[in-house]
């Protein structure tokens, strides 16, 4: 995730719509109408359609066989499946990258963790999610495997969407406490311990989502 200004109009529309979906401004099930979005965002139909195609790839918009488009609904089943997929991808990246981390990397991780905590305290879910995602990205990119990071990027917005649903809950603590423990272990030189603690974040988070979200579904 990045704070950079999008380079194209389509990229700007993708970011705007993604943010609206992640935060719930566009709720699950919302019918997506090209003309209405184009008028609201002040762009032509073309970047709207290109953005919808991209967000469909990311799993945030469903395109039905009759070509109607809706914001994807979130169920406990697909939330847990998403966490499982994210865990496989991110933990592989962490494992491949952790031994390549330098002091500069660790300093960046500490900075992202502070941004994560500060944004969450300010109630800025998007900034918190971006900083939290960047924490993992720093380590994954240290592996040198950019293809893996590209795969992670495809599912990270949906993971942030689940977190945004729980902005006032304790689910964020799995990440806050996990990141703090990882930083301590890295600073102590315990790379394998840091990897084990990263894996535990996903175990804890999955259990909390299963226990606390979608109750009665």
UniProtKB/TrEMBL annotation:
<keyword id="KW-0805">Transcription regulation</keyword>
<dbReference type="GO" id="GO:0003700">
    <property type="term" value="F:DNA-binding transcription factor activity"/>
</dbReference>
<dbReference type="InterPro" id="IPR008920">
    <property type="entry name" value="TF_FadR/GntR_C"/>
</dbReference>
<dbReference type="Pfam" id="PF07729">
    <property type="entry name" value="FCD"/>
</dbReference>
<dbReference type="InterPro" id="IPR036388">
    <property type="entry name" value="WH-like_DNA-bd_sf"/>
</dbReference>
<dbReference type="InterPro" id="IPR011711">
    <property type="entry name" value="GntR_C"/>
</dbReference>
<dbReference type="Pfam" id="PF00392">
    <property type="entry name" value="GntR"/>
</dbReference>
<keyword id="KW-0804">Transcription</keyword>
<dbReference type="InterPro" id="IPR000524">
    <property type="entry name" value="Tscrpt_reg_HTH_GntR"/>
</dbReference>
<keyword id="KW-0238">DNA-binding</keyword>
<dbReference type="InterPro" id="IPR036390">
    <property type="entry name" value="WH_DNA-bd_sf"/>
</dbReference>
<protein>
    <submittedName>
        <fullName>GntR family transcriptional regulator</fullName>
    </submittedName>
</protein>
<feature type="domain" description="HTH gntR-type">
    <location>
        <begin position="7"/>
        <end position="74"/>
    </location>
</feature>
<dbReference type="GO" id="GO:0003677">
    <property type="term" value="F:DNA binding"/>
</dbReference>
